[in-house]
Structure of ATP-dependent zinc metalloprotease FtsH:
Amino acid sequence: MPIKEQRTPTPSRVIGNILLAISALFLITNFILPFVLGPQIPGVPYSLFIHQVEAGEVERVQVGQNQIKFQLKTVDNEPGTVFSTTPIFDLGLPKLLEEKGVEFAAAPPPKNAWFTSLLGWVIPPLIFVAIWQFFLRRGGGGGPQGVLSIGKSKAKVYVEGESAKTTFADVAGVQEAKAELVEIVDFLKTPGRYTEIGARIPKGVLLVGPPGTGKTLLAKAVAGEAGVPFFSISGSEFVELFVGVGSSRVRDLFEQAKKQAPCIVFIDELDAIGKSRSSGGFYGGNDEREQTLNQLLAEMDGFSAEGATVIVLAATNRPEVLDPALLRPGRFDRQVLVDRPDLSGREAILKIHAQKVKLGEDVNLKAIATRTPGFAGADLANLVNEAALLAARNQRSNVAQEDFAEAIERVVAGLEKKSRVLNDKEKKIVAYHEVGHALVGSLMGGSGRVEKISIVPRGMAALGYTLQLPTEDRFLMDEAELRGQIATLLGGRSAEEIVFNSITTGATNDLQRATDLAERMVTTYGMSKVLGPLAYQQGQQAMFLDNGAPNPRRIGSEETAQAIDREVKEIVETAHQQALDTLKLNRDLLEEIATQLLETEVIEGEKLHSLLKQVQTVNN
Ligand code: ADP
Ligand code: MG
Ligand code: ZN
């Protein structure tokens, strides 16, 4: 039975509307109407008023609390004009008026004084409440809202029978994750089987993986397979507006969920609330986030006692920042890795998304999968859509392989920008730079075969590019391959050095990546002989233990830091020298390919392979 989102007009909602109306009325009667209709007495500065009193021009004065009205003397039977001024604290005024023989009196109290003062006391708080309401209502999407339901959960509820039901068939390339989640589906479908034996059904499952790998999709699929309601809320939504709202939202979310058990509560971006409580560091924690987190922990501890099967799925791409308390047994004690798909996984994902578009006969999904290492599911979905857009733009009735080829380049390197014009000198530099990458890259293992060199600018950053495609998926790299990659990255700059004897800013990104890679070799992969097979983690996260004391194993000493720097420098410079040697040895070939590239702008395929076959290896 489908359960719809509840949105009944509660009494509190009605009260809220009445309050809004009263506030508006108050504003109109007190500020807007007097302004429009009110007695228009011209105002003058106080000094002028005193001046006129002293000059004996004033007939009578009425002193009110906020206003002094005064009338000038009658001249030629014309009654004097009435002016007003704002009083200032002046104890000498009565004396002065008496001296000048001016008739004066205090202003009579306004007739409706009780009413005004009542309004004055009652209305401002009402306005405040009304504004509060307004913001809450804006902040809250669905769900019951009103004065008395501040902080009600705005979890979206997806339920069985919804038109777009997600199942495991919609998710591909994450076999291990699916296998683990099949078990969860079973818990939800037949909790009795487990509890009879005395097994404790896990409460929390944490999906960990990079963005776009299908974590949200998997959570929905679990609900879809089990046929249970799916409450979804994002961690970042908790951390907003008023202190205390986050924790009451958590409470309410679980209350709703328990009523509909068995069901799934999905918390996306768990790291937004679940950040380690000690990681606030010197700046102190975020109280609101902490309260929300504490409430979440309390709820997760609570609901098993009540015998309801509520399974909390959560997703994060930063498991390392999560509070350890979240990962304790009885909370998110299961972690499921949702990683980027491998070759066959990518093919399967492409197959799923390609069903939505008309494919040409020549399309080879396997070939596309081979060319897209590192793409996550979302990137592949995007790729299929790009290809379809290109086909439509080229007025084709179905998507061809060449559309996919162009879409890949688009997704990888940004949109082709034919309009960007380089001057001849720049073009020449870019050509030698790219050929430098290609020549060095063709000799080095580990980074794949050079498939294309182009000096057609793409996207924002790349003026030209060299495309290297792996011939297979790689999971492990050895030291020589990493050094080869670094040399390849430095090949561009080395070519500039050799040919032009100068360096441009074009290699910034290459240098950054080369340095990062070298640093990882030393600090993460333990490939340095000097520093040994230790992991030297750097950065904020790992620097302090729970009690705030520095962690001596992780934070390196000054000496270690210097040793790391030296090692990184050694690796990069060796690679640089290797690139220079290779290019010097193949100087003629560098000339030849660069000249061709300047003519055609792109060299690829067989032509490129046969040129690169001529590269000679430096013997040493
Ligand atoms: P995440 O939550 O991990 O950031 P999403 O689940 O939001 O990623 O994925 C976004 C979209 O990308 C999905 O709606 C789906 O279309 C596509 N996608 C991602 N991963 C996969 C996958 N493994 N199989 C099929 N489609 C996927
Ligand atoms: Mg997501
Ligand atoms: Zn480069």
